[in-house]
Amino acid sequence: MKAIRRFSVRPVLPDPLRPLSDLARNLRWSWHTETRELFRAVDPDGWRAAAGDPVRLLGAVPPGRLRELAQDRGFLRRLAVVAGDLQDYLTEPRWYQRAEGEPPAAVAYFSPEFGITAALPQYSGGLGILAGDHLKAASDLGVPLIGVGLLYRHGYFRQSLSRDGWQQEHYPVLDPNEMPLELLREPGGAPARVDLRLPGGRTLRAHVWQAAVGRVPLLLLDSDVEENAPRERDVTDRLYGGGSEHRLLQEMLLGIGGVRAVRAYCRITGHPEPEVFHTNEGHAGFLGLERIRELSERGVPFDTALEAVRAGTVFTTHTPVPAGIDRFDRDLVARHLGDDGELPGVDVEEVLRLGTETYPGGAPGLFNMAVMGLRLAQRANGVSTLHGAVSREMFAGLWPGFDAVEVPITSVTNGVHAPTWTADEVRALRDDPTDAELWDLRRTLREQLVHEVRRRLYDSWRQRGASRAELGWIDGVLDPEVLTVGFARRVPSYKRLTLMLRDRERFMGLLLHPSRPVQFVVAGKAHPADDGGKRLIQELVRFADDPRVRHRIVFLPDYGMGMAQRLYTGCDVWLNNPLRPLEACGTSGMKAALNGCLNLSVLDGWWDEWYEPDFGWAIPTADGGTVGDGPLGDGLEDRERRDAIEAAALYELLEEHVAPCFYDRGPAGSGLPERWIEMVRQTLRRLGPKVLADRMVREYVERLYAPAARAHRALDVSTAGRLAEWKARVRAAWPHVAIDHVESACESVELGGSLALRVRVALGGLEPGDVEVQAVAGRVDESDSITGADAVRVPLKASDGPGEDGSWLYEGPLALDRTGPFGYTVRVLPAHPLLASPAELGLVALPPDDLGAREAAGVLMR
């Protein structure tokens, strides 16, 4: 019989064991070895049955065992030490508390998913794992972050395979009471609640659950509350599920409801109010609209509120393709944010303008969440150097008249949280291990992976319907002595799961080579609605089912954090072969590198930035190697040709470089692959420190959070109002700003000489202090375009007063500091001390000849 209601009965711990509850409820245990070992000692068998989840463990420990532990002096001493260590961790000053200047009092970090631990399954892939690592690193550094997300009652799906290899999805019911969560409660004990108005007089209500991620509180909004109608109750049912309106409601709850949850949390707990709001991807973009609404309730005009909100907002984009961005029908957004919906007092037309695709080729009927995110944030970034360049090109249309290199989107390369992703054996390694110690370490980790793979493969085949008698062959799957390649990630088409199968005979030759065999461990999930991705999985599974190769290649279903931690540590090589430049960052290879695993990857994402031959291998690509500079197009024929070229390059690397390096055991008698071991050593010593989430979060603090906090403090309502008025005046006058005349005098065009520039500018009623007149100079290409990376920008000075016609004369020297083809142009930009970038308004005035031919860039002298 099926129960009509489910609830959890929590254990009553003896008084001496009460600290166990606090340790279980703080997710620091997920990256703190000593805490996990303490829980393992509570009940080793129960720890395995609970899959390493302390909350589940404590709910299942027999009372007799608890009484026994309460009398165990040795255990109680360990408990006191671990509990004391947590208390010190939570209260002692850390890096942030010693930082110079006045960093933000608090930062609110919004993300649609968070991957903290498998015990809190609220993630689907890299975006969530990155968000989880961001919170953990912020905790370790003492950054006063508040995480904000949604609590999905079914999480993301669990994956299994049918007998013929087709992905099947299962959605487990998650009970927050059985997870390391606590309800946020008002002082009187009632659950804190967030309400959103919906069209038709409906209300979306949500409770707020708290997870303690070390020092960082994570707030998760949950619409599964009894007061909601069934439709609203299901808003947070599953991650990335449902249709367009369902997604819109999720994102309204995340952004608008998330700000209200932060306000409630700070009011109830006394936590400092955030000065900076970080929007991790466009899903949370509505948070800016809620903050505008808060100001509008105080009578602040929309434009003024927009300036005040933008100043303290950071927007991070993770997608390198327009198709990866959430876009909603404008009418749907208007209905939910208009007079009959949320954000009362905010003009819905102003809201719609924020998400309008005003660039060439944009769809006027759609509301673009990333476009809104960029317009609501004064600071924006991509997640690797290459992705920053891709993002600047992708969104350049929002800043017409500017070269892509000047688009105000910077980059902070992602990092990974070392304590989460580094094997205990690697952490225990001494500072300068011998070759033999490094090789023994790698073999130990590989052997652990082999046993883990066999166990998971057995369980998978049983789920696929195989009997025990059919599965004796699994005992021979993989070999601890064989070069092991890992490939695990989501399965959209651009990540090319099946590129390795392009030439099956050649690939089988690699797997079955008599002296240098290679074995593969593969995992990944396709989105439930992505039948193309599911077909790729089925193709790979069917190949791996072939009795000729099934001992050398394995597909493991249900890829998640628990599996990933084994794969990253146990593989010798981590493979990544996306279509360049479609991998924004790709942090899985970073986690592998922390464990001495070498990367074999297309030069995309972070690998494009930090690849060196000492760390692994770069797969040659057919795209020309630079953004937008490939000889191949996007058609099916070109894609097929590109895949063929890059698959052949992959096979050649494995055959001629990777495998020989692994199996070359050096001079007679040593038995060690000396070159391979040296690459492992260099990966751990030189690459490891670069890929850390600590480095990433420090960069966010220093380059984005701290400047955003300063801008937030500078833009009080009065100042924001003056800035909004100034922008409106500049925009109105800008059609009349023009460069009327340019002349130069040059004594010598030799290196070390200079040009004396004189530029006459009509300011259209603006004052010289409202603009900056620049000379832009540098080397020019064959089309006389100034190359962006090489350009210098020299401000020119205004004369004492306007001429008879009202125009102003600007003058200044331009140094000739380089040889070769050289050119310059001049331009006028808005200028104000509170602008974060000269391109912020997207306004620029160029010489008349440039207005109709932007590509010529106005080269006036060579």
Question: Quick recap of the structure?
Answer:
With about 850 residues, the chain is an alpha/beta fold. The protein is built from 28 helices and 27 strands.
Fold topology:
Blueprint: H1 19-25, H2 33-42, H3 44-49, H4 54-60, H5 63-70, H6 73-91, E1 107-110, H7 126-141, E2 145-150, E3 158-161, E4 167-170, E5 182-183, E6 193-198, E7 202-213, E8 216-222, H8 230-233, H9 244-269, E9 276-280, H10 287-296, H11 302-311, E10 313-316, E11 327-329, H12 330-337, H13 348-354, E12 366-368, H14 369-375, E13 379-382, H15 385-394, E14 410-411, H16 418-421, H17 424-427, H18 435-463, E15 483-488, H19 504-511, E16 518-523, H20 531-544, E17 553-556, H21 561-570, E18 573-576, H22 588-593, E19 598-602, H23 605-610, E20 616-619, H24 636-663, H25 674-687, H26 693-714, H27 717-733, E21 738-746, E22 754-762, E23 771-779, E24 792-795, E25 797-798, E26 808-815, E27 822-830, H28 848-851
Parallel strand pairs: 1-2, 1-9, 2-8, 9-10, 10-13, 13-14, 15-16, 15-18, 16-17, 18-19, 19-20
Antiparallel strand pairs: 3-4, 5-7, 6-7, 7-8, 11-12, 21-22, 22-26, 23-24, 23-27, 25-26
Helix pairs in contact: 1-6, 2-6, 7-26, 9-10, 10-11, 11-26, 11-27, 12-13, 18-21
InterPro entries: Agluc_phsphrylas (IPR011834), Glyco_trans_35 (IPR000811), Glycogen/Maltodextrin_Phosph (IPR052182), Glycogen_phosphorylase_DUF3417 (IPR024517), Pyridoxal_P_attach_site (IPR035090)
EC number: 2.4.1.1
Keywords: Allosteric enzyme, Carbohydrate metabolism, Glycosyltransferase, Pyridoxal phosphate, Transferase
